[in-house]
Amino acid sequence: MKRRLIALAAACAVEACTPAGNSTTGERGTVHKAEPMPARFAVGRTATPAEVAAWNIDVNAKGEGLPPGKGDATAGAAVYAAQCASCHGAKGEGMPPNPKLVGREPRDFSFATTTTAVKTVGNYWPYATTLYDYIRRAMPQLAPGTMTPDETYAVIAWILAENEVIPRDKVMDATSLPAVVMPARDRFVPDDRAGGKGFR
Amino acid sequence: MSRRALVGGAAAAAGSLLFATLPEGAAGQGASTSPPAQTPSDIPVDPTKVLGAPTSSTSGRSPFVVTGRTPTGAVSGSSLTPLHQFTGNITPTDLQFERHHAGVPTIDPVKYQLLVHGLVEREMVFTLDDLMSLPSVTRLHFLECSGNGRAGYKGIKPDLSPQNIDGLLCNAEWTGVSLSTILAEVGVRAGAEWALAEGGDAALLSRSVPVSKLRDDAMLVYAQNGEPLRPPAGYPVRLFLPGWEGNTNVKWLRRLEFNREPNMSKDETSKYTDPLPGNKARMFSFELDAKSTITYPTFPNRLVRQGWVQLSGLAWSGRGRITAVDVSTDGGTSWTEAQLQGTPGVKAAIRFTHMWKWDGAPATLMSRAVDETGYVQPTFAAFREGRGPGTDYHYNHIRAWKVAADGVVTYGGEA
User: Fold this and answer.
1) What is the DSSP letter of B102?
2) Backbone CA torsion sign across B415, B376, B210, B169
């Protein structure tokens, strides 16, 4: 062992172990360092605008991404009865495991202190735009992605009207939907946990 | 004394090798009881006197080992890891929990594409080949659904097993591309603070993730435990965010869109937010705080004689390494440091063990994890005080197991 160290030290003295170039010479012969990584590998290809448009279906809280179209609760009642009621119940009361969609109690958002409260669009959701984003991507569950914008706006108007968040005659479209202020809008706080001592 | 000697009653009769399996029809399992034992067809009297089976393409389990998840048949639902049957650090791939919102999609790897767009210099499409040609990283991490522990907090009953309570957990080796590599390929633009990750399942499940996490330690994973991801785990590619709640680790990933703000999708508002006392709810509560759970002895085990018993369990933290696990056999009055089986990894689960001499008196077993931030797993009482009885997600309080004088072990709830 000691001899080996001495041999290595000698080799280092002659050839410099810390490579001036890209290699080290010692007991393992000459060993090269890996080439430095490039800033990028230029793998993959440029996406076409059509590809982006086809998949870029999300709607954010400002309403960016909402398509043209419109609908109200009257039109929405028909859409709901035909496409949603079989799972979520005639009045949006839910049929486990299909969630309840309608209901304002508890109005004080006391979800942490009671064990019986059921979250709904009306009592828990902070943004109405989430309805468009979610229904467009995932509902009706057995045929996602099949609803027209008018049907989607209409069924959203029905859900919001049943929750007494908007009047029955209010038309939902790309302008009015992001303007809806949900009852639970100000109930959400950022995460203040950070590890360390103390429980939050 | 062997473990087997300690396991009694119906379970031993059922033929389980190492552990008591769930008794048939055990309440709390219902339709989700593990499948019944298959009787081995040819059990030689003396295996040294007959030739064994030939080589085969894949190995199955011994016919004496009865195991399984807890499928419910629902496409929007979960099945649970049989934690109480494992002894090591790694979760066998085919027994890892599932949680899907619209079933498991079948995705052709040749047609698979990942679209990366939004606030980037170059909007790009990556194939699976592209991703696999980039520098890969391999790391050991746990994965846990933030709903894990709900039954043990909101549905307390004696006949809950570790599978029922904490089965939305697995620990595995993950291989893929660092997200930071992808960020360099596309060139993230100033102002891009969030990325929307979207899955290619029938729920197009979407979550907003801070770009800081993507730069830090996020991965695009295509392999687990050395082989391509299994479909329920996200084949061919999933997002992997070490230490963060399972739902954000979007499976079957097909799109990453860089944005200024989070999208406020359904699964970051309606779900995966944590109600707090004061009529508020915490949102974007990504990290999983330190937690531990005893896996033996627990329900449905029964200790059949006094003497040495090995307590065994798992501990993990989404904030780094586990530094210690304490165990208590007197309901938290006194604590003893357990042994860790190996060097704890960053955001990885570690097995702990502790030899306990049972004197035949009733006892309450607990474990308490400590992580490198100095965080100590909270008691049930502290957790309920801080979060409220109706809170949701991130149930990381200390779990209790009650040993009765007859050796029967049951879940202790708020004990």
Assistant:
1) S
2) negative
Q: Which domain holds residue B195?
A: 99-282
| Domain CATH number, residue B157 | 3.90.420.10
- Read off the pLDDT of residues A84-125 as tens digits, 9 standing for 90 and up: 999 999 999 999 999 999 999 999 999 999 999 999 999 999
CA distance to partner chain A, nearest, from residue B296 (Å): 27
Between CA B382 and CA B377 the distance in angstroms is 10
Give the nearest chain B residue to A43 (CA atoms): B130
Per-window interface: A 63-122 vs B, CB < 8 A? 97, 108-117, 119, 121
Number of domains into which chain B is organized:
1
**Per the domain annotation, does B87 fall within a domain?**
no
User: Which domains, ranges and CATH numbers included, belong to chain A?
Assistant: 67-187 (1.10.760.10)
User: What was the ipTM of the complex prediction?
Assistant: 0.89
B203 within domain boundaries: yes
* Residue A13, C-beta contacts closer than 8 angstroms, at least 6 positions apart: none
The number of residues in chain A equals 200
- Rounded to 5 degrees, what angle do the CA atoms B67, B72, B76 make? 125
Phi, psi of B376 (to 5 degrees): -115, 130
The pLDDT of residue B211 is 98
